[in-house]
Amino acid sequence: MLEISLKKQLEDIEIKIDLRLDEELLVLFGPSGAGKTMALRMISGIVAPDEGRVAAGGEVLFDSAKGVNLPVRKRKVGYLFQDYALFPHMTVEENIAYGIEGAREAAGKKVNELLSLMRLAGLEKRYPHELSGGQKQRTALARTLAAEPRVLLLDEPFSALDYQVREKLRADLINIHRIYPITTVLVTHDLEEAFMLGKKIAVINNGVIEQSGTREDVFYRPGTRNVARFMGVRNIFAGVVSGFEDASVLIDTPDIGVIKAPHPKASSLAIGAEASFCIRPEEILVIRPDRVLGRVQDNILECDITGSIGKGSTHILYLETGHGRTPLKVELPNFVVRKLELAVGRRVKVSLKKENIWVIP
What is the pLDDT of residues 301-324, one digit of tens each? Predict the structure, then answer.
């Protein structure tokens, strides 16, 4: 269990962090300059907060009210830096063994276990300058785990690596957390990384946690317009509540007309109230020209394709619709784009399916 309640005033931003974690992996996500790295530094003890409290495993590491501030070496908090911070004069196995306490035999067993887990077997006698970026990162992570921390902090650990290496290391980290279920906080501003690793995600903006919760909550049910933008939603609209229909709310937008959306639970929406809603690019449905609409009748819009960008296995289509030429961003698998011959200049029908719309609180 990790309990964090910290404040620190910097020159241009005030950091306020309140989080509670069990033995889980939390992704701390946000734009550059939002306060992500500073949060890790305060948890680890590298930087002293102005006020607050940090407790891990039932032990208080920092408490400004009680004058508690354990030094870094006594906190049992592992911190993996972006630049690896390996000892250049030590081999791989010597770097890993550095933080292990106890008998040499037990230390050797631990090193061998981590060499195998981190796919470093055969590299134990090499020095850092003889390793690739991915091998350095795996060595640094093995050294951090060797000290048996109760909390693991990872500061954008894969940002300097190429895509294929990052993808493999992300899978490694998921496996490592399964074997060593340590309370882990990973900082990133990479949306794909946040989605892949974060069963729980906290979004930080301007020093404040705007939303924290499960991956599904944060990605598909953003609590603010900022969170929606950070999570790649892009399709965010505003309008006025014009009525209610069964379990739906009708929102009249200036350019695309009346949109039917699920009525949010515990909501105080009233007719005439302003309302914002969003839909993820991959959840907009392009309707085939030869398809009978049938059940697909919600929020059908006619759009012009104004842009198209390939993105590996998917395509991003930029559409415009309505009197104000409201932009829409749609993400589709490549085979769908090819099959429907979707290209710039074509006019298509799309559906903003009611169940895929989220009304932002």
Answer: 999 999 999 988 899 999 998 777
Of the candidates 70, 29, 351, which has an alpha carbon nearest to the alpha carbon of residue 213? 29
Single out the residue in 229, 264, 282 at which a domain terminates. Answer: 229
* Longest Cα–Cα distance in the chain: 75
Strand partners, 63: 53, 68
Q: Are 2 and 151 in contact (CB under 8 A)?
A: yes
In the 8-state DSSP scheme, what is residue 264?
P
Structure confidence by residue, pLDDT tens digits, 210-265: 999 999 999 999 999 999 999 999 899 999 999 998 889 999 998 888 999 998 87
Residues 272 and 140 in one domain: no
**Residues β-bridged to residue 301:** 350
Cα 318 to Cα 146: distance, rounded to the nearest angstrom: 49
Clarify whether residues 183 and 246 are in a common domain: no
Q: How far apart are CA 166 and CA 160, in angstroms?
A: 9
